[in-house]
Amino acid sequence: MTTIMQVYTTQATTNAQNDTKIVDIVMMCLNSVFVEMKMQISNIIMAVHPRRSSNHYLLKSFRIVGSLFCISSSLSSLILLCLCNPLNGIYIGLVTTVLLIGFIEWVIAVLPFGPSHELNEHCELALQVCFPFHHLFTNAFLHVKIKGLIDEWGETRRELWFVLIAQTVVIGLTIVWDILLCNNKRALLQIVKDKSKHHQGHRRITDRCSAVTVTVTVISEILMVGITSLSVAIIVGLFLMQKN
What we know:
244 residues, 7 helices, globular
């Protein structure tokens, strides 16, 4: 009976440790989804509602909530990593960096600037700079941590590596898309604002505005759905790998 109890205790401890190792990855996958949603939905709001006074507080509220979700997920992952034995400095360093970037984004989002404040453009530029680093460090953690699990468990999951590579490619496309929008933001907003000045009799302006709005909305939604789907695929693959 003593031997049986020791076996069950050892197996339960091992399963708990494996669950902890997977849950922190799940939290970082959610963090990647929150970052993507925060940025792409902000782009959609700016394209659909171009007037500064009407969309400023909506964007501000959404960015605050999105930053809080990012902070919560990365902080949960950091706590789970600290509960693991032994501790790994690379994992903790990457998650701490992600947590710090998320906190910086939250601080920028809560700054009490009105819609006509001169520092709004600088704040948005700072958020645009934080976005790619947030994604890159999160993706780096996923690659390093999943590689460590595969080496530890002795599993060769090519499908999981393909999903990770696909997610990295989509993140690269997201960063490129964000840079393009940032560089052409003023021109795009001017096109959309022209529509509000000429409701009728300017068919060309209306068509051009509709094309811009639809393009920004569709591409942003595709990127957001892509990151979400790949993150879910990574989570499912990890649980299947643990089960085997």
